[in-house]
Design brief:
There is one protein chain. The protein has about 290 residues and is α/β, with parallel strands linked by helices. It has one domain: Rossmann fold, CATH 3.40.50.720. Helix content is about 45%, strand content about 15%. The protein contains 10 helices and 9 strands. α1 packs across α9 and α3 runs parallel beside α5. The longest helix has 23 residues. The radius of gyration is 19 Å and the shape is globular.
Length: about 290
């Protein structure tokens, strides 16, 4: 994927945050982009801005928790711009995890897994057959997280578990495509190196009635500002990564045909190394 100009990309969660930044960056490389999102107003605004800048862009309202909706996305995307070369399964949510794991409502688990895990599965099943059939070089990029995908934050068991699943799923896809000597590749995206200033902290705005919480939320909503204030109160400045930086990392990963799209982070590397050494030494997690 050295030359992206004139190729076709599909990005889920493309209306805002990381997805929007990815769509814009790929469009600037000359790609024709289809952005999929459940949030119509934000999606329309993003597509309008891309078109005003002279890019070929289309927005489609899609519910990635429903396989039929993602299958329709694939059909409409191909009808609009032809074969898909880059698929970014990026849409994700993070619930308000305000209780111990044994007290968290099942609706939080179902909502998070339906979006973060099944959304990726639906994307793979809908798009990979066509990407294999056209025979041209391509890439499937699944957005995981350092939280769960590499190490974990004990206070976010639902989110961490879902992103761990995305990492495992993507590595399996990579190995199977490689074994088949396919022209397309798979990559796992770990946004960072710091906490990303995205809308995932406000994901509840798009929580459908089918996933309504069984019990009231105890704690006030967590926002990026809340986390920064807590860090400052503890004597730390919390660095933030902008979505545009994540998009640059993704682009570099495509050009390098990299499986791990993982920005350098001395702190993150140290945490991952410590966790790996614990496993090899059979030490209990700490």
């Amino acid at each position: 994927m050295k030359d992206l100009a004139g190729k076709h990309a599909v990005v889920t969660g493309g209306a805002s945050g990381i997805g929007r930044a990815i769509g814009e960056r790929l469009a600037r490389e000359g790609m024709r982009v289809v952005l999929a999102d459940v949030e119509k107003a934000a999606l329309d605004a993003t597509v309008a801005e891309l078109r005003a800048a002279g890019h070929e862009a289309t927005g489609l309202v899609v519910d990635i928790t429903q396989p039929e909706s993602v299958a329709a996305l694939e059909e409409q995307a191909v009808a609009a711009y032809g074969p898909v070369h880059v698929l970014c399964n990026n849409a994700g949510v993070g619930p308000q995890e305000d209780a111990p794991i044994w007290e968290l409502p099942l609706s939080d688990w179902r909502w998070t897994f339906d979006v973060n895990v099944y959304g990726v599965i639906h994307g793979i099943q809908a798009f990979v057959p066509g990407m294999l059939a056209h025979g041209e070089p391509g890439h499937v990029v699944n957005t995981s997280s350092g939280n769960g995908g590499l190490v974990l934050i004990p206070g976010t068991p639902i989110y961490s578990t879902s992103k761990s699943a995305v990492s495992t799923l993507t590595e399996t896809l990579h190995l199977q495509l490689t074994a088949q000597q396919a022209a397309i590749r798979a990559s796992v995206l770990y946004p960072g190196p710091n906490i990303v200033a995205s809308n995932i902290f406000d994901a509840r705005r798009n929580r459908l009635p089918a996933y309504e919480r069984e019990v009231p939320q105890n704690a006030p909503p967590i926002t990026l500002e809340t986390i920064q204030k807590l860090a400052k109160a503890a004597g730390h400045d919390l660095p933030v990564t902008q979505p545009e930086e994540v998009a640059e990392h993704l682009l570099a990963g495509l050009h390098a045909d990299a499986y791990y799209i993982l920005p350098e982070s001395p702190d993150g590397d140290a945490r991952l190394r410590a966790r790996t050494e614990n496993v090899l030494a059979r030490r209990n997690p700490a």
